[in-house]
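The record is kept unedited without comment:

——
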Amino acid sequence: MEEIPQNLVMDIHWIHDKTTFPHWKDIRQNIHVHSLYWIQEGEGVFQTDTEEHPVSPDMLFYLWPGLSMEMSSGGGEPLRITMILLSLYTLSPSADNQGRVEPLHALPLPFLLKPGREPGRQLSQLFRQIAGDFVPGNPGSQLKTQALLYELLYELFQAKDSANPDLGQGYELFLRMKEELERRYSEPLQIHELAVRYGISSSYVRSLFQQYLHKSPKGYLSEIRYEHAKKQLLYTRLTLKEIAAACGYSDEFHFSKAFKQLSGQPPSAMRSC
């Protein structure tokens, strides 16, 4: 699984629900931004410098900055395209809490994505909502649209992984267990309990996590608890005992030991920074 960019910041340039006409032709004008083209209706052809792609409904084209493309509609039903143009950046933490903004050169998305029938229906609705709600220059619309765009990117990353035939039949099961660990990190979860709940063996649970995340389920759960504990150390006045209980550790001793293994320092040292 490719890493989703952390601390992603976006600047919306334009969102447009474009209806073309038979035998329409155009080129990608804004090549210095990230563009998402969702095909709502019609048929046509998109052509880059290296390849020609037949276009039909429920297909996504992701165009990273610098990519040129020619577009055309056929003689039958013309294309209707929801177009989203963005500048994307990542915000890196810094010691002075000011952060450092760096341009994002590309998202971990393919040029062409063909999600399944149900994900495609959901994505189509989301693209329509984004295009319908966007009001340029309106601060309230800007905030709402950004929230929907973050949701859209998450759904696209999920659809990309689900559409990959190399992932195997256990991928959906892995996602459900992964999400359960993320949601129930504060509880005293045991891997064998997870296996029983999903009707599989503990060894199969471990093999799925190794296959798709390259980590053991126990190791992943430890990382989730560590990140939650780190935030509580930095932004609350809870005692170590209270943080241990809130983040799923059996006691303060096990919390301190696990925290030091991951950070190289005891939790008290981070709080004193």
Observations:
- The chain has a mean pLDDT of 90.
- The longest strand covers residues 80-92.
